[in-house]
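Reply to dn_fold:

You asked what the input looked like. This is it:
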Amino acid sequence: MEALRAKEIAEAVGGIILCGDENILITSVGTNSKNMEADSLFVPIVGERVDAHDYIEDAFYNGAAACFTARDVAMNKDKVYIRVEDTLKALQALGSFYRSKFHIPVIGITGSVGKTTTKEMVAAALSTKYHVLKTEGNKNSQVGLPLMMLCMDAEHEIAVIEMGMSEEGEMAKLAKIAKPEAAVMTNIGVSHIAQLKTKENIRKEKLNIINFFNKNSLLFINGNDALLSKLYKTGEDDKDILDIGEKTRPKFLDAKIIAFGTEDFCDYRAENIQTVNGETHFILRKKQGDRFFPEQSKLQAPNSYLEESRSVLSGDGEEIVLKVLGMHHVFNALAALAVAEQYHIPVSVSKKGLKDYTPIAMRGQIKESNGIKIIDDSYNASPDSIKSGIQVLLELEGIKRRLAVLADMMELGELSRQCHYDVGAYISQQKIDEVITIGEEASYIAKAITDTIEKAVQDKKVNITTHSFMKNEDAARYLLAHIKAGDGILVKGSRGMKTDEIVKAVIEGK
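and this is what came back:
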């Protein structure tokens, strides 16, 4: 973060300095009183169970020089207290103000699943040319995103920012802070459908990511997604029939839409997809015509790279190699290659960044212990991401038995049991040997498999063993007693189910 004076911060958020030196320089902002740096600003967030105003003194003890406050508190006259109406809104206003000080491209990443991996791949591709700021950890929310924007500094040339939402109106708030000039939409699934009721509503909400687009902005969409492909295919005369927010509509009509996927109409298309020695190989084909030519884009390449990257159309028909498995990673890579090329990086260059990409913790890492391969995808889960995980399990080479350990998927509302059952029905058609479920909702995965087996008992096409547990420790105990060298295991569940405990137990053997 570039230093800001306390007076400048107060003016940016509409606050009032109650005491302290208004000219003191603030060099970082945080919301955790235990992890404050010297010369930092503490923002006490008021949550459902905890009001962080109670920890202002702890923040000062740990290095903070200033704080926001929305309530009357005992003040230390040697510190800066900035009175605001709402600390969260003040943090967001500060993030928006600070972002406006930097005239670099911001690429927003959203979607029901795959946001983090896509963000990582886009950043990897762009890093072959630029100094990239990318979202750290889970800083993609109303609290995390403004903190992420405050990490910008003079060295950054481009930013790749993950933007998540779980309720109506949230994406519009995030867009106001990050102001992306380009955006990637990975897919529209059923995550958060409990709050938004329909997939069409989810699409409408996520489209608010383009609210601050200009006439030269780019929207990258997954052409294999039924709802997103409609954004691409709808003719100019029919676009008004799409359910899009009024603020979003003019931005959408002005945006240039680029599709990636395996469908024939996609601008960036993957063909001849193969698994070779634990890697994914595919051929990139690019659509020729007026719909997309990077040199026709009016987007400005950051800094000095515009002139040296004129040969951006090179790479048509190039082989792409990824060190990760699964069709979802092909889509993520296509998005990354498309974004990079639009920012004047030839595919022949950006693909090198993708070849070096490896998954981050608990997001599809493949680990090995005692001859057993474990796909640690325990960070989160949705119906679509479980299906993707199953495909990765099927692609593992040298495996004798394939086991899936699946825990509850959360935030599915009234559709929860049906979604779990549908996942089970999907798995029943795959060559999986055993499914272990954890949690009441996940037991419906096992029920669907059992129902399918009963229906297919005569022709014996389905032969999947199922076991259901309510606790991780019980599932882990069963696994440890039954797994053996040559097994491949997928472990996946919503974050609240803490299925990383299963991974740890299998690796440690206890």
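The chain has three domains: 4-84, 102-355, 365-508.
Hope that clears it up.
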